[in-house]
Amino acid sequence: MKTRRYNRAKPWVKQNQPPQGEPWIWLTIEMLESPAWRALSGAAQKIVFRVAIEHMGHAGTENGNLVVTYDQFADYGVRRSSIARAIREAEHLGWIRVVQRGRGGNSEFRRASRYALAWLPTADGLLAGNAWKRFAGSEPADMVLLTRKARSKRWQSLAA
Q1: Is 7 inside any structural domain?
Q2: Could you give the count of Cα atoms lying within 13 Å of 154 in the half-sphere of its Cβ?
Q3: CA–CA separation, 65 vs 126, rounded Å?
Q4: Among 20, 133, 147, 150, which is most buried by a count of CB atoms within 10 Å?
Q5: Separation of alpha carbons 6 and 3, rounded Å
């Protein structure tokens, strides 16, 4: 009598793939365990995830040209008073790039900011970067200091 072996790997492989027809984005374990990710505040993590949602909403083809408004960040759960600081923090730690800075004002002069996820290539051909890796050897105390600097408007003006 012939016994049949059940290959358990195949169903697991099939289940462990992105759902068909659903947008998805990859985050590696190295990224999520990095000091730069752990140093992000909750608001800054929401900023990164909201930009990632916008990226997936464009089928991954518009990185570097992703428009996310303050209202969209606020609807996602970031307090309006924390948005600018959280954007600076996420940018400083290497998770997003602000490609074009927006500005408020009346309708003629208003312009939304444009963002890119820094670890993915952009639509205009700029290669993916790993700016978050520059903090690889940082101690937690150093990361706290760095994120405080990133959150500070004064530091931002000195760094520019």
Answers
A1: no
A2: 2
A3: 12
A4: 150
A5: 10
Range of the domain at 31: 25-159
Position 94 pLDDT exceeds 60: yes
Q: Where are the alpha helices (DSSP H) in 25-111?
A: 29-33, 35-38, 42-57, 70-75, 83-92
| Total Cβ atoms within 10 A of residue 73 | 22
Judged by DSSP in three states, 111 sits in strand
Report how far apart the first and last C-alpha atoms of the chain are (Å, whole number).
Answer: 77
- Higher pLDDT: 144 or 112? It is 112
**Residue 117 phi, psi (nearest 5):** -80, 120
Total domains present in the chain: 1
Contact call for residues 41 and 89 (beta carbons, < 8 A) = yes
Domain membership of residue 66 (yes or no) is yes
∠ Cα 78 82 85 (to 5°): 125
Place of tokens 């290497």: 94
Per the CB < 8 A criterion, the answer to whether 55 and 68 are in contact is: no
Residue 6 in domain: no
Q: What is the pTM of this model?
A: 0.78
Asked if residue 15 is part of any domain, the answer here is no
- Coil, helix or strand for 134? helix
